[in-house]
User: What shape does this take?
Amino acid sequence: MSEKNQLWAVLEASKGDTDVLCVVGKRVIKKSEIEQILQQISNKRQGKEVSEEEKKRLREDYITMCQLSEWAKAQKLDELPETKSALDQAYISAALRKLGESAEQATKEEINKEITNLKKDEDIMKSVVIETVIVDKKGKDGKKDMEGELKKLENLKNDLSGKIFETWAKKFQINNPNGEYKVNDLTVKMLKSNPQLEKILKEMHVGDIKVVPLDKESSLVLVVRFMKEGVRTSESTLSRMALQGVKSKKMQELIKKVKEEFPVKE
Assistant: This one.
């Protein structure tokens, strides 16, 4: 059977099925699939309903994942085996990896243009600098009670150099790259997109150290030291943001082309 006839057969087979939401390529997307995901989300929220806006976004994201999956199959990426589910994670990962490789190809001109645009935004050009580290209140390997060590941090407010805190942080940091001691240059725009962190810093002054629980059921805590405020964003941070911005735009353009290649048929 030809590709065109196969698509026609899929469309014909889906007619009359009230559970069908739409068709993407050879994939028949059913309403019950999305309902099942919504139920899982609701269960995790202990029965709290999912808003209409969230439902709409989930529906759109789910369809996009189907489109990426169908595109990956059509491209025969990594010679992936056929599976019954077009949403098999292997297909989506292969599609995103392939598109990501193309998005990586950002030119110097594109990055410089993005930096120029970033510099026009006052919320991007103003930054705060903080130090962060994640520690386990139970201590490393559960061998040391950290409560006393965390209380000692209250005496470091006058340490303007920050060297004592850095030494302390590197001594007690968790054994995970995501929790290691870091100096973070955060723009005002970044903070506005992270209300939780913005709220924490609003309650602090330069030099203050705050211990923030990460999870009610976890013994891990985030330790934040407020180093500087009203800092002009560094060129290195702008370059990093510009590169991420260019890559993101390229990725969105590539995904848009995939969606056009595999349109939704309702």
Notes: The first helix runs from residue 3 to 14. The mean pLDDT is 85.
